[in-house]
From TrEMBL:
Molecular function in Gene Ontology: oxidoreductase activity, acting on a sulfur group of donors, NAD(P) as acceptor
Keyword annotations: Disulfide bond, FAD, Flavoprotein, Membrane, Oxidoreductase, Redox-active center, Transmembrane, Transmembrane helix
Species per Swiss-Prot/TrEMBL record: Candidatus Jorgensenbacteria bacterium CG23_combo_of_CG06-09_8_20_14_all_54_14
Protein name in UniProt: Pyridine nucleotide-disulfide oxidoreductase
Residues of the FAD/NAD(P)-binding domain: 8-290
Record-linked SUPFAM superfamilies: FAD/NAD(P)-binding domain
Gene3D superfamilies: FAD/NAD(P)-binding domain (3.50.50.60)
Record-linked Pfam families: Pyr_redox_2 (PF07992)
PROSITE patterns: PYRIDINE_REDOX_2
Amino acid sequence: MFRSGMVYDLIIIGGGPAGIAAAVYAARKKLKTAIVADMLGGQSLVSASVENWIGTPKISGFDLAESFKAHLKAQDGLDIKEGEKVKEIEALESGFRVMTEKGSNYETRAVLLATGSARRHLNVPGERELEGRGVAYCSICDAPLFKDKDVAVVGGGNSGLEAVVDLLPYARHTTLIHSRGALKGDPQTQEHALADKGKVSVVLNAETLAILGDQWVTGIRYREKSSGAEKELSVQGVFVEIGLDPNSALVKDLVDVNERGEVVVDPRTQATSRPGIWAAGDVTDGKYRQNNISAGDAVKAVLNIYDRWKAR
C-alpha cells in the first residue's frame, strides 16, 4: 500500500478487537498506518457464541472474527501485515523500528500495542481438543450457553469465583475445583459465589488430570491430593479460570509494567510511560476484560495519537 522504506505514522501490533478498532479509526483519520498481527480475530475465535458484542445480538466467535476482518479490509490506505509476528521493538531517535520473525523491518513514529493476553491453560488431556466444545475461558461471554447444565469451574481465585457467580443464573449445578486447601478470592466474592449451597459445591486440594469427552465435554477427572484417589465428575462444561498472562514481553524494557506484567497506561489516553507508545486492551492494567472495552480503549488511543500529530 505505502512505498517501501517509508516511515509510518502508526504501527498497530495485534489483531484482536483492540487492534482492529484502532486500525479502522486510524485509516479514517488518514494516518499512515500498518497493522501487524500473526492472526486476525482475537480470542473470540474460541467462543461458540458471542452475545454481548454491541449491535449483534448473537454471533459465533468465528463469524465475529470474520466480520472484524471484513471491516478492516474495507478500509483504504491501510497496510495489513497478516501472518507476521513481531519479535522486537527498537527505540530510535525519532520513533521506533518494528521487527518481525519473517525478517521484515518497519519504521514508525508511534506504536499501539494491542497484543492482548494469553489465558493460562491446565495443559491436561482433552483441554485443547474440546476448546469451544464445552471447554471455555470466559464466563461472562459463555455462561448463558450452559443453561440447565452441570458445569465445573477450575480455579479458586477471584476469576474462578466470579465465573461461579456468572453461572448462577444459568447452570443447574456448578462445582468449583481448586488445587489448594483454601480459596484465594476476596471474602465478599466468596460469599456471593457460595451463597446458594444447592447450586454450588467446592472441591479443594484437587489436581485436575483430564477433561473428558469426544464431540463435547462429558466430564472431568481429578485427583484428591490428601488421599491420592482419582475421581470423575459428570459435567457438560468446564471453565478454566486460572488467570491471564499479558502479552507484554515486546515492551517490558521500554515502558512501565506492573507486578503482573500488565502495561501501565493513562486511562484517559492509553498512553504509556514512554512517549510514542500507546497500549489498549487486555495487555494493559485496565480492570475489565471485554471486547467492547478493548475496542473503546483502542479508539481512545488512536484519537490521542491523531491529536498529537495534528498539533505538530
